[in-house]
Amino acid sequence: MSDLPILKLRAVGKSYGDNRVLKGIDLDVMRGEIVTLIGPSGSGKTTALRCMNFLEAYDEGEVWIKGQLLGYRSAGRTAKDRDSEASIADVRRPISMVFQQFNLWPHMNALDNVATPLVLAKKMSRRDAREKALAALKRVGLEHKADSYPAQLSGGQQQRVGIARALAIEPEVILLDEPTSALDPELVEEVLNVIRSLAQEGMTMVMVTHEMSFAAKISDKVVFMEAGRIVEAGPPAQLFGNTRTPRLQQFLKPWLERSLNVSSEGVAS
Ligand SMILES: Nc1ncnc2c1ncn2[C@@H]1O[C@H](COP(=O)(O)OP(=O)(O)O)[C@@H](O)[C@H]1O
Ligand SMILES: [Mg+2]
């Protein structure tokens, strides 16, 4: 196995008009690694994730996928020369994305939600696509819901269909943007379980999450972002147990207090 990062960001920057929302992000993601991005709302987590597959065009630095430059014809800081859509699609092929709001088509059943991208993007026959889609639904435990429409599924099930759709293209990296934050609390666990099983299978993942306990358990690396920068990054034991920056300490404080309260109430009762 090579030690080339499967996904590499170098000095990645992004501005919306005068608002520079990413200010030079460096990140290496190795095959099989699970990297979680944490940070306050508006710190640029979603933008960073979307730049990793060029759903959003970054305008400084470089994103490399398996050693290939994503989005532009040449590296460097000068004016960016956008690559053709065909080459962008080609470079990003190993990556798929899971969205916060699921982004399912309401007029298609679960099977077709998963199968249709294979027909459109992978030019697969409808029959092969449906077969692959059914296998993907099986991986998330929803083959029995293949005929159900999104409105007939719980939020947790809808997100599991979203994950099946991401899996069906046989990605090498999955990007997940707050996959459980649109869910009622009692539905969070079933989605985390699916993500945990992917982790156990060795899937490479970059995930934005506010589920700190989950992040602490599942991650190889945690990245704390604030105002478009990476403030602190490292293994979970370091970020959660031996926090270096006051800013991260402050960010984690409510979570730490909540976990302590729960245990002291447990002792009291
Ligand atoms: N499409 C957009 N147009 C203009 N500003 C945007 C857009 N998307 C995000 N932003 C701004 O970029 C900043 C970072 O947003 P985002 O990446 O969504 O942060 P996070 O995911 O950490 O909450 C915010 O100030 C947000 O308002
Ligand atoms: Mg976000």
Instruction: Report the CATH architecture of the largest domain.
Output: 3-Layer(aba) Sandwich
Look at the structure and name the CATH superfamily of the largest domain.
P-loop containing nucleotide triphosphate hydrolases
Q: What fraction strand?
A: 15-25%
Please name the CATH topology of the largest domain: Rossmann fold
Q: Unreliable runs, pLDDT <50, ≥5 residues?
A: none
What's the number of helices? 9
Q: What is the multimeric organization of the chains shown?
A: single chain
Structure description:
With 269 residues, this protein is α/β, with parallel strands linked by helices. The protein has 2 domains: 175 residues, 3-Layer(aba) Sandwich (Rossmann fold), CATH 3.40.50; 71 residues. It is built from 9 helices and 10 strands. The strands form 2 sheets. Strands 6-7-8-3-9-10 form a 6-stranded mixed β-sheet, sandwiched between helices. A 4-stranded antiparallel β-sheet has the order 2-1-4-5, covered by helices on one side. Helix 3 runs parallel beside helix 5, helix 4 packs across helix 5 and helix 5 packs parallel to helix 6. The structure holds adenosine-5'-diphosphate (ADP) and magnesium ion. Adenosine-5'-diphosphate (ADP) binds next to helix 1. The site of magnesium ion has 2 residues, from helix 1.
Question: Summarize this, please?
Answer:
The chain has 269 residues and is an alpha/beta fold. The protein has 9 helices and 10 strands. The strands form 2 sheets. A 6-stranded mixed β-sheet has the order 6-7-8-3-9-10, with helices on both faces.
List the helices and strands and how they pair.
Elements: E1 7-16, E2 19-29, E3 34-38, H1 45-52, E4 60-65, E5 68-69, H2 85-92, E6 95-98, H3 110-120, H4 126-139, H5 155-168, E7 173-177, H6 185-200, E8 204-208, H7 212-218, E9 221-226, E10 229-234, H8 236-241, H9 246-268
Parallel strand pairs: 3-8, 3-9, 6-7, 7-8
Antiparallel strand pairs: 1-2, 1-4, 4-5, 9-10
